[in-house]
Amino acid sequence: METTLPSPADWALWKKLIFRFFFIYFLLYIFFNPNGVLPYIDDIYNFYITPFHGVAVWIGKHILHLSQPVTTFTNGSGDTTYDNIIILFIAFLALISTIIWSALDKGTRNYNKLLYWLMVVLRYYVAITMLSYGFFKVIKLQFPFPSFGRLMEPYGNSSPMGLAWTFMGYSTGYNYFTGIAELSCGFLLMFRKTTALGAVMTLIVAGNIMAINYCFDVPVKLLSTTLVMMALFLILKDIKRFSNFFLFNKVAASSDITPHRFRKKWKNITLTTIKYVLIAYTVIFDLVGVIQGESQYGAKAPKPPLYGLYEVKTFILNRDTLPPLTTDTTRWNKMAISYAGNTMLKFMNDSTNYFAFNVDTVKRKIVMNKYSDTVHKWLFTYTLPKKDSLVLSGAYKKDSLKIAFHQIDVNKFLLVRRGFHWINESPFNR
């Protein structure tokens, strides 16, 4: 006979305290990091978050006594000083609120209803985040194939994050594997009957994301850690069932997943409608976004003018042909043009740097400058004397330059041409 594990009528004090803390902590975290989970939420976030920038600056100066003032807020990095201060601020507010809540609310036997709605919020927050991650991997936007610049950059010169991006970006198949895993987590969490499986999968998948972020210095540590915490929280409701099944070889009773219903029918219909509209919006919005992204900056995006990897054959500075000496920090060695408006130069001493690189294909002119110096620019005209050849003629400051290039066939790189082999008579590790 099938049994259902009922929700406890009386909670222990320690359970109430933990719930109160995390109820407030998670809701505050979502308030400060909505992560685009609702339509137009980021626009609303940009409106209400500004005052808290000042709060974080004040905390950093007067409470934490930081040696440097907080001037950088959430950007491409989610692990800025500001973000860490906000986490401390959230934890402090949750702790104070828990103390006040506990002092005022001594008669409540349980928080089963609040727990139900908190889990709904966490399910959808994690689910929509995982769906976004998954779509960006399946369409291969987050981790593009290694650019020309990456291919000619020595391993030792790459950052840990750059190494992780190269590893992930190399394999389309592995992107499909991880992307489908993340999509599965998202879809499973959106429905009550599959929440337990979705939470376990999310713990594993988000745990791997968190490990990569920590071990390869990827600045999304705070968000990935919180996703793992939320997955653990979702699992805790069924921890006894999991323990019985996996550890103690006992019967695992089914979980009570009966939805909380309102007395008025129209409220239940409205809630169900909102649920499926949100799911449809998330899937359609993500799909449209990644498909557009693929054609704008992904694999199907138009290639920039002069796209390719070039090796310098002759480098003439003020009518003096510079020999290819490995100690020369002036002479160029290779030039990579992978993205519009940008190029990477590799110099003879193996150092590399990125530059702004704007091409006028009508006048056949190029304007190029260091990102740190927008005043001094290289001004070139270019010619394509024959296939796979490029010649730049121009000036930089008071120097005249003429540089002849030969385009490199990137398929000669071992990383590009090796591919997949089902049979290996011996390990091919280079």
UniProtKB/TrEMBL annotation:
User: Which superkingdom?
Assistant: Bacteria
| Parts of the chain that traverse the membrane | 12-32, 84-104, 116-136, 173-191, 196-214, 220-236, 269-291
- Please provide the record's keywords in A-Z order: Membrane, Transmembrane, Transmembrane helix
Can you say what this protein is called?
A: DoxX family protein
